[in-house]
Design a protein that fits this description.
It is a single chain. The chain has 326 residues and is of the alpha/beta class. The protein is built from eight helices and 17 strands. The strands form four sheets. A seven-stranded mixed beta sheet has the order 13-12-11-14-15-17-16. It has a four-stranded antiparallel beta sheet with strand order 2-3-1-4, covered by helices on one side. A four-stranded mixed beta sheet has the order 5-6-7-8. The radius of gyration is 21 Å and the shape is globular.
Length: 326
């Protein structure tokens, strides 16, 4: 049967499927199909699919009915997949335990099922988890052709930002000097290195930096990745170095803008992430960047982008800014 589908390269399939699932646009009645090097993901409302995706019609067979958690529970649990870990977002502990049992009994491949037990906490941005099925919190997550080993109990990682990471990395040129100031396990650094950039990733979390080094090896880019454990404000040897800077620490990136200006080369693109009230989501960040940089650089805002809703009336946003030395 010919149905509307999002057409993507096979290596981008899981990240695209997750992005469409977050938007509640997957057509669960038809199977995802492969044709050559392309994947066709059926969607329920093609007019609601973001413009960045390629929507086509394609023959997709009706899905053989598999048992899903909702079939067992009678209600739809809120969850996402991170490698072979299923992450629940249920406020009620008993409801979470019921959902975990249903996921374990369903057709969803899940080694471990966890429920969020805390918000992101501390300067290492780690979350506590209730492990409800299985016990191993380490996994390998794949997105856009890259594989990331990580332990959710030890590091921060959000699969929901896969599309945003891909947007940034698609701008990277071969031989570019790419610096991620809060690199984690490498979801910006590794794909940038695969595009041919010379990359530096810094993080305060030594466990995350260990995974960054492992992931550079895993993805065949160790020769283009330098991983540094520590506060980026204390890193030496990279003044005036970067062609591109990523600052994905949205609650406090403004505290590191002086370091960013010191790292920036003569012509540098800055990707600055922020969380602000919906009444003025971009103004505080833009004013902070100009205050830090305008003595040395012309500041041009290339794009003001809403990444996602973060909380009621709060938005996670990104400012793409060009710094050109005067």
């Amino acid at each position: 049967m010919s149905v509307p589908c999002v057409r993507v390269p096979r290596e981008e399939g899981e990240a695209t499927r997750q992005a469409l699932a977050d938007l509640d646009l997957l057509d669960d009645a038809h199977d995802i199909t492969v044709e050559g090097d392309r994947l066709y993901i059926p969607v329920s409302e093609p007019t609601a699919v973001p413009a960045e995706f390629d929507v086509v019609t394609h023959d997709a067979p009706e899905r053989d009915r598999q048992t899903l958690p909702a079939d067992i529970l009678g209600w739809e649990p809120s969850y996402e997949r991170l490698g072979d870990i299923v992450v629940l977002d249920e406020d009620d502990p008993e409801r979470a335990r019921e959902a975990a049992r249903a996921i374990a009994e369903s057709a969803i491949p899940a080694k471990t099922v966890v429920n969020r037990a805390s918000p992101i906490e501390g300067e290492l941005r780690i979350r506590r988890w209730d492990v409800l099925h299985g016990e191993d919190t380490e996994t390998v997550h794949r997105e856009y052709g890259c594989a990331f080993a990580l332990d959710i109990a030890e590091v921060y990682f959000s699969p929901r930002l896969a599309t945003e990471r891909h947007r940034v990395v698609e701008q990277v040129e071969p031989d570019e000097r790419f610096f991620d100031m809060f690199a984690g396990v490498g979801p910006f650094v590794i794909p940038a290195a695969k595009r041919g950039a010379e990359c530096v990733g810094v993080d305060l979390n030594e466990v995350a930096v260990g995974y960054l080094r492992e992931n550079a090896e895993r993805n065949g880019v160790a020769d283009r990745v330098t991983a540094i454990a520590g506060d980026v404000r204390g890193v030496e040897g990279y003044d005036d170095w970067a062609d591109r800077l990523v600052m994905n620490l949205p609650h406090s990136a403004d505290e590191f803008l002086d370091a960013a200006v010191a790292l920036a080369g003569d012509d540098c693109t800055l990707h600055y992430y922020d969380i602000q009230h919906e009444s003025d989501p971009f103004g505080p960040g833009e004013r902070a960047i100009r205050a830090a940089a305008e003595d040395e650089y012309d500041v041009e805002v290339l794009e003001r982008r809403e990444v996602r809703s973060y909380a009621p009336h709060e938005l996670n946003v990104c400012l793409d800014v060009r710094l050109y030395r005067t």
